[in-house]
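Render EfeO-type cupredoxin-like domain-containing protein in 3D.
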Amino acid sequence: MNKVYLFLIIIFVLGAGGYLLMKSYSPLTEPISEAPQTMLTPTTTSEIVAGSSGTDAGATAQSNKAKEFKVDGNEFAFAPNTLSVAKGDTVNVTFTNTGKYPHNFVINELNVQSKTVQPGQSDTVTFTANKTGSFQYYCSVDSHKDKGMVGTLTVQ
């Protein structure tokens, strides 16, 4: 009879342990939300200096003005997820974390990396787009990049 009770106790303990283990289980990944596919291209105004041909003054005024972008990041996407600038442009990206986990903004090829930003906070990075091509920007926190937190900067 003792063996039967011991067997029942072992079955009960294993069953209770399995139940508690399954009850506390939560998926390791967050659901991926799709960001709207938008492209943001800033516009600049040029100023023509009186007495000049207009071409040189306009080009100078346009090249001195920084391109301003506001990029929001959340779980796990950027908005907008596409940016476009010209080679040689000075670029200011204000990255705002609109999610519930820490995020950042990184472009390896252009040596750009924001601070890791807490929810509701922002950080601004300034850089010169000195190479042409398409460059991926992403969040380097944990595996956020692998979960789809990426975008594309095109430099023409």
